[in-house]
Amino acid sequence: FTRVLAKMFEAVDGIDVNARKTAQAQKAAAEAGLSIQFHAGSGEAMSFADGSFDVVAFSNSLHHFTDMERGLGEAARVLASNGLLYVMEPVPSGNYFEATKLVNDETVVRTEAYRAIGRMVRNGFIPVAEIMYRARRAFANFAEWRTEQIDRAESRRRIFETRGEEVRTRFEQHAERIDGHLAFDQVFRVNLLRKVR
Q: N or C: lower Cβ tally within 10 Å for the chain?
């Protein structure tokens, strides 16, 4: 996503808490000739000056914040007047969510992220747009998805060890079978807001 933005803007900064991932992303951006500066750090405590960005984007990340209000407050702080806040979040619905719920049920945090975005309207922002869309996810088999899940969070391995058949059954029941793959639609919501004060 950051690499796409780098083709649209003069300068782009990216933040992730995982230093290994930011180093990999920095290398990939350099190889692609893109002007991106990646930083290992938290969106809840950005090192940027007040009003230094025209756009702040949260891509599938706000619901992972320990303190969502603080993260959005930091976004407001570093945004220039009339700057845009773009927040893309997964929605707790759809067949991918249902298929993967036993391993990664984020209903509560995703709902709270949406509420936190709504509170920004009372804190110096006006809504510009809200867009819902579906992204297709496809896996060759259950094992491929299982590997991806454990790579994302080693803590999920225990769920597969203790409830593996139940997880597999649920995953396969909610899948569409397309061209030999298990396919799903993951639902996302994008909220675009403008800073007015």
A: C
Q: Confirm if 73 and 43 have CB atoms less than 8 A apart.
A: no
Q: How many CA atoms are closer than 13 Å to the CA of 118, on its beta-carbon side?
A: 7
Residue 50 is inside which H or E element, if any? none
Integer Cα distance of 195 and 151 in angstroms: 37
pTM attached to this predicted model: 0.91
Cβ–Cβ < 8 Å for 122, 171: no
Q: Which amino acid is at 143?
A: A
The per-residue pLDDT for range 138-182, each reduced to its tens digit, is: 999 999 999 999 998 999 999 999 999 999 999 999 999 999 999
> Which candidate, 88, 120, 83, 90, places its Cα nearest to that of 9?
83
- Contact between 100 and 175 under an 8 Å Cβ cutoff? The reply is no
Two tokens, residue 30:
């350099």
Which residues are within 8 A (CB) of 99 and not within 5 positions of it... i.e. 6 or more apart?
Answer: 170, 171, 173, 174, 175, 184
Letter string b/e over residues 43-66, b meaning 16 or more CB atoms within 10 A of that residue's CB: bbebeeeeeebebbbbbebbbebe
For 101-129, the pLDDT digits (tens) are: 999 999 999 999 999 999 999 889 999 99
Tokens representing residue 131 in the block: 């867009």
**Which tokens sit at 9?**
């803007």
Q: Are 149 and 156 in contact (CB under 8 A)?
A: yes
